[in-house]
Amino acid sequence: MVADRLAVLGVVAAVVAVVWLGLRWRAARYRRRPATDLVRGRPLVLAFSTPDCVPCRTLQKPALLELQRRYPGQVDVREVDAAADPALAGRFGILTVPSTVLISGDGVVRAINQGAVGWERLAAQLELNGKGPRARMAARTAR
After folding, report:
1. pTM given for the model
2. Closest Cα partner for 49 from 96, 90, 87?
3. Largest CB tally within 10 Å, which of 24, 41, 79, 82?
4. What is the pLDDT of residues 42-96, one digit of tens each?
5. Greatest alpha-carbon span in the chain
6. Beta carbons within 8 Å of 53's beta carbon, 6+ residues apart
7. How far is 34 from 37, CA to CA, in rounded Å?
């Protein structure tokens, strides 16, 4: 009886691990595509939503407004209706709304977030606050 339960638990854990790895591989594949045609010299946040998305209005929109308030003139935020522009959503593999795609000023896709994300994480992913992975690595090498 215990062995059966452990076997089922092992199968469920294996399926979850495979799905998680598949989603990470998929996101990494989309991040490798350049997006120089979308940026204008400043980091860009593409915020995918739909008109009937409640988390987009109640969670993601305030985070985007706070990001713009804290970093005025340093980041562009472009809201995209994923239902009205499926080509752009498909270009970045958007599966759900809200989703955000963060693109550096030179057109490199830094992150793709499926789900609502706070302004602090967006700023860190764009390294606006000096807390992103590249900023941490530069600080380590400077020591």
Report:
1. 0.76
2. 96
3. 82
4. 999 999 999 999 999 999 999 999 999 999 999 999 999 999 999 999 999 898 9
5. 62
6. 97, 98
7. 8
Q: What tokens appear for 99 in the block?
A: 């989703």
Task: Give the strand pairing for 44-49 and 76-81.
Answer: parallel
Question: If DSSP codes are grouped into helix, strand and coil, which group holds residue 125?
Answer: helix
Which tokens go with 23? 């989603």
Whose structure tokens read 């340093």? 74
Burial class (CB within 10 angstroms; exposed 0-12, middle 13-18, buried 19+) of 41: exposed
Helices (H), 57-128: 61-70, 86-91, 119-125
What Å distances lie between residue 94 and 20, 60, 76, 88, 122, CA to CA? Answer: 16, 15, 19, 9, 17
Q: How far is CA 104 from CA 13, 62, 125, 138, in A?
A: 36, 21, 9, 17
